[in-house]
Amino acid sequence: MSKLDVTSSRKVHEIALMGIMEILGNEEIEVLHDLAVRIATGQGVYGKLNLKSEQRDLDKEAYEEDLDSSIYRSCRYVKRKRAETGP
């Protein structure tokens, strides 16, 4: 893929994203913003996303993140339940 192809593909995606944003509600834009911030944060750690050369096991990483999320949700639930009913 030439630099011109990449640039035009990026422009197409930017224009499409702007069009999608026009129909989204405020809270949906907030979620989209949070996703973009997370991507930018990851870029600071891993560099720009390049799926062709990506070496990480993304399925394993996603699985581990899901496990972490389950732990956090469970802890919040137990904490809330204890606050409502006592230990």
Low-confidence stretches: none
> DSSP helix count?
3
- Ends apart, CA distance between termini: 61 Å
Structural class: mainly alpha
Q: How big a fraction of the residues is strand?
A: under 5%
Gross morphology is flat
- Number of separate structural domains: 1
> Major β-sheet, in short?
none
Q: How many strand segments?
A: 0
**Helix share, percent:** over 70%
- Average predicted local confidence, pLDDT: 91
Please tell me how large the radius of gyration is.
19 Å
Helix and strand run: HHH
Q: Would you mind describing this structure in some detail?
A:
The protein has 87 residues and is mainly α. It has one domain (3-85). Helix content is 80%, strand content 0%. The chain is built from three helices and no strands. It has helices at 3-23, 26-46, 58-85. The chain is flat and about 60 Å long. It starts with a helix and ends with a helix. The model has no long low-confidence stretch (mean pLDDT 91).
